[in-house]
Amino acid sequence: QVQLVESGGGSVQAGDSLRLSCAASGRAFSSDDMGWFRQAPGKERERVAVIMWSGRPTYYANSVKGRFTISRDNARNTVYLQMNNLKPEDTAVYYCAAPRGSTWASVYWGQGTQVNVSS
To answer: Per residue in 62-115, pLDDT tens?
Structure first.
C-alpha cells in the first residue's frame, strides 16, 4: 500500500521559514515526478512545486518563486519543501503528491500538513 506522509507544518510568523518533508512508502518513487500542492480555506487546491525524478525542479507557482525550494532524496524516498520568507497568504494545508502512472491524471495524495502564517 502506497503512503505519502507529510510532516513539518506548524504556526509561524510572517518572514519565518519552515521545511516540509514527505516520506513515501509502499513503492519507490525514484523514477517519478513528485510535487507539493496546497489548499487554503475556501479555495481550490493549487499546485505549488514539482520536481523531476532526477532532482530538477520543473514548476513553481508564481506566488512562491524565489521563496520556496523543492528537493528530494531518492535514497530516502523523501521529498522536501523549504519555505522561506513565509507570508500570511501561504497559510494552507500542504499536500505531497505523486502520479500513479506516467501522468498526473491520477494521483497519490498524502494526508496533508497545516501551515499557519500570522502577520
So the answer is: 999 999 999 999 999 999 999 999 999 999 999 999 998 888 889 999 999 999
As a whole number of angstroms, the distance between CA 49 and CA 118 comes to: 22
Specify the residue for cell string 496546497: 38
Q: What is the C-alpha radius of gyration for the chain, rounded to an integer number of angstroms?
A: 13
Q: From residue 83, how far is each of 10, 17, 88, 100 by CA, in Å?
A: 12, 5, 13, 26
Residue 38: strand pairing partners = 46, 94
Distances (CA, A) of 86 to 40, 41, 45, 95: 14, 17, 18, 17
Grid cell in block for residue 37:
500542492
